[in-house]
Amino acid sequence: MAKVLIIGAGGVGGVVTRKCAQVPEVFTEITLASRTLEKCEKIAAGLPRPIRTAKVDADDPAQTVRLINELRPDLVINVALPYQDLAIMDACLETGVNYMDTANYEPPDEAAFSYKWQWAYDDRFKRAGLTALLGSGFDPGVTNVFCAHALKHHFDEINMVDIMDCNAGDHGHAFATNFNPEINIREITARGKYWEKGEWKETDPLSVHKTFDFPQIGPREMYLMYHEEMESLVKHIPGLRRIRFWMTFGQEYLTHLRVLQNVGMTRIDPVSFQGREIVPLQFLKALLPDPASLARNYKGKTNIGCMIEGLKDGKKRRYYIYNVCDHEASYREVGAQAISYTTGVPAMIGAKMILTGKWSGAGVFNIEQFDPDPFMADLMQYGLPWTEEFLE
Ligand code: NDP
Q: pLDDT, tens digit, for every residue of 210-237?
């Protein structure tokens, strides 16, 4: 018996809302709020049971506080943009409500993402006796839980992790991003970074790459990138010597990205245009397809997982755990493409963990800090089955 407030009516917000609506025994009352009320109403109209909708600008904590006080939810699920994380956490602290998100805070004017800003809220959440769960999407999210599961059941010590994210889907556009274009392009154009032997090592953007043969997809070129879950996994996996993150891209995508970068369209600093200031990347976002709109014609699969090496009973072990998700099957079930689906389902499960008391505690937590077992069981039940292979 729980009330949730979901903030953000985008591609991911649509899936979380629908998935919560499918579990009425936990999510008894659902409100979906966003800057644009019509987007919430459109999502609500397609659901099997009624939910409430509301308009909120979550950049303004006073508006979120007002809405929370009116609704008194048990949990706020933040699936707006990373820019809103701190403002929503402030509103949760002020009103005494638990918090959850799928992406770590990014300052709007700096292409940097790190947990440091949200970890700094730990004391305040502890003092308030509230739970803040960070990063309950797929990556971060399921990939962290995969590591926690491997450590709990299959390894005495984990030494190396390669997180590998492959989207082999085809949406028919020459260039489009699978989630919010601004956040996505900021992430991909950043310098690569991985952790080895106790320190972070940097690489030029997308300069390190190799081929991997993804199950149910085939060989794809994947590129080393920085990704936020590495920051928390380095902290929470004892004995870790190296962790890297890889994502696949096609040549067509990379060529478009290079041209856009070369002509300055991915800049995040304002430029003066016809007497007013515009941010080129925000303008580009306005031109690109809305990620949610890709769903209808998206074909193919995603495969996201972790290749893990370490020791079990004194012997070296190599282990691979992954999920395969089909764009067309996601669309048939929830009207969304697989990237929104693979983020929205774990967001619903993370919320369910908190609301059913399976995961509890006061403070700010990354998802791998909790018991992976009930979450892994729910992935099987709610649409993201996983496969594990023992390679050595
Ligand atoms: P979209 O751009 O499709 O949706 C974001 C939504 O947030 C929009 O509907 C927008 O509302 C709303 N929003 C933006 N600013 C505000 C604000 N100030 N107040 C209220 N609502 C606001 O993005 P996605 O759905 O693709 O992504 C959502 C989140 O999920 C992002 O943080 C993204 O980084 C994260 N993500 C995480 C992944 C993971 O695996 N962990 C993978 C993919 C995404 P409106 O349109 O009404 O202005």
A: 999 999 999 999 999 999 999 999 999 9
Average pLDDT over residues 267-292: 93
Ligand 1 centroid vs 313 CA: distance in angstroms?
44
Single residue among 134, 161, 182 that ends a domain in this structure: 134
Centroid of ligand 1 to alpha carbon of 8 (angstroms): 5
Domain-embedded: residue 72:
yes
The alpha carbon of 337 and the centre of ligand 1 are apart by a number of angstroms equal to 15
Q: What is the 3-state secondary structure (H, E, C) of 324-361?
A: EEEHHHHHHHHCCCHHHHHHHHHHHHHHHHHHCCCCCC
Domain that holds residue 324: 142-333+386-390
| Backbone angles phi and psi of 80, in degrees to 5 | -80, -140
Which residue is listed with tokens 């997180």?
163
pLDDT of 135 higher than 90: yes
Please indicate, yes or no, whether residues 109 and 237 belong to a single structural domain of this protein: no
- Written as six digits, the tokens of 123 are 């004391």
Ligand 1 site-directed mutation target among 65, 67, 343, 345, most atoms within 8 Å of CB: 343
| Mean pLDDT, residues 60-84 taken together | 97
Q: Whose C-alpha lies nearest to ligand 1, atom 44?
A: 179
**Test site for ligand 1: of 179, 293, 302, 306, most ligand atoms within 8 A of the Cβ:** 179
Burial class (CB in 10 A: 0-12, 13-18, 19+), 26: middle
* Other residues' Cβ atoms within 10 Å of the Cβ of residue 193: 17
pTM for this model (two decimals)? 0.95
Residue 182's pLDDT is what? 83
Question: Tokens 């962790």, residue?
Answer: 243
- Report how many domains make up the chain: 2
